[in-house]
Specification:
mainly alpha
């Protein structure tokens, strides 16, 4: 529900979601949700963030970024 509500905010939520998705100090599952919500809220902003996250040290975060990129 929270992820959907963030996505409904659109561009307003894009920058905070992008920051969370790229934050290596954040919990991995929080970063996954940020990536998914960012893709729903602002797909054009999710691609560069996901591409950058492909180099992350956490395998699960890299996997979610790769799924988002297709």
């Amino acid at each position: 529900v929270a992820q959907r509500r963030l996505a409904e905010r659109g561009e307003e939520a894009a920058d905070p979601l992008a920051s969370l998705a790229a934050d290596p100090a954040a919990m991995p599952h929080a970063r996954w949700h940020a990536l998914w919500a960012l893709d729903a809220a602002a797909p054009e902003k999710s691609v560069p963030v996901a591409a950058a996250v492909l180099a992350d040290k956490d395998n699960s975060v890299r996997r979610q970024a790769a799924r988002l990129l297709g």
